[in-house]
Design brief:
This protein is α/β, with parallel strands linked by helices. 40% of the residues lie in helices and 14% in strands. It has one domain: 3-Layer(aba) Sandwich (Uracil-DNA Glycosylase, subunit E), CATH 3.40.470.10. Strands 2-1-5-7-6 form a 5-stranded mixed beta sheet, sandwiched between helices. The protein has a two-stranded antiparallel sheet with strand order 3-4. Strand 6 and strand 7 form a beta hairpin. Helix 3 packs across helix 9. The longest helix is centred in the last third of the chain and has 17 residues. The radius of gyration is 16 Å and the shape is globular.
C-alpha cells in the first residue's frame, strides 16, 4: 500500500489527461489517515485550484457548516475529489467557469482516489455529487434516483451518495429544504460508522 504522502507527490506530476495543462496545480486529498469517514467530491473549483487545498471555496464553506450541523468534525474527515485538476473555461473578464470533467478525465484520476481509499481505509465513503458517485459506482449511477442508498465496495467499504454542496448553493428558492436534506445525508453517513 502506498502512503498518502507518496501518492500526493506522484499526483503532483500527473499528466494522465490534459487537465493539468490549464490547472494551477494538482489538488490532492487532505485529512487524517485511517479515519472512519472519507468524503469524495467531484473536482477542485477555482479557489481550490489556486490554494491547492480541497473544499476551501463557497461549496467548502457550506460543507463545513453542514458537517457541524450533522455533528461531524471536519478535522476528523479525509476529504478528496474524484478528479484532481480544475477543469474550466474562460468566462467574462478573468472569471474561470467550472466545467464537468468528461469520462476519460475522470478515469485518468481513478488511480489516485483508489490509492487514497486504500491508504485511508475508511468504514464509510461519502460520495458528494454525480461525478464522484459515477467514478466509484459506475457511469450509469444516478444520484437523483439512488441518493442515500448504501453500497458495499469490493474492499468492504460502505459507500453512499448525496448531492454536491455546490448544488445547494445554486438551489436559491429551495435552499433550506436542500440544505436540510444534505445534513440528513451526512447524519446517515455518521450513523453508518457505528
Amino acid at each position: 500500500m502506498t502512503s498518502i504522502k507518496a501518492l500526493r507527490a506522484q499526483a503532483a506530476a500527473c499528466t494522465r489527461c490534459d487537465l493539468y495543462k490549464n490547472a494551477t496545480q494538482t489538488v490532492f486529498g487532505e485529512g487524517p489517515v485511517h479515519t472512519p469517514l472519507m468524503l469524495m467530491g467531484e473536482t477542485p473549483g477555482d479557489k481550490e485550484d489556486k490554494a491547492g487545498h480541497v473544499f476551501v471555496g463557497p461549496a467548502g464553506h457550506l460543507l463545513d457548516e453542514a458537517l457541524a450541523d450533522a455533528g461531524i468534525d471536519r478535522a476528523g474527515v479525509y476529504l478528496t475529489n474524484a478528479v484532481k485538476h480544475f477543469k474550466w473555461e474562460k468566462g467574462p473578464g478573468k472569471v474561470r467557469i467550472h466545467k464537468t470533467p468528461n469520462r476519460t478525465e475522470q478515469k485518468a484520476c481513478e488511480v489516485w482516489w483508489r490509492g487514497e481509499l486504500d491508504a485511508v481505509q475508511p468504514k464509510v465513503l461519502g460520495l458528494l455529487g454525480s461525478v464522484a458517485a459515477k467514478a466509484v459506482l459506475g457511469p450509469s449511477f444516478l444520484v437523483t434516483k439512488e441518493r442515500g442508498r448504501w453500497f458495499e465496495l469490493d474492499n468492504g467499504v460502505s459507500a453512499i451518495a448525496t448531492v454536491h454542496p455546490s448544488s445547494i448553493l445554486r438551489a436559491r428558492d429551495r435552499y433550506e429544504k436542500e440544505y436540510a436534506a444534505f445534513v440528513a445525508d451526512l447524519k446517515k453517513m455518521l450513523a453508518g460508522l457505528t
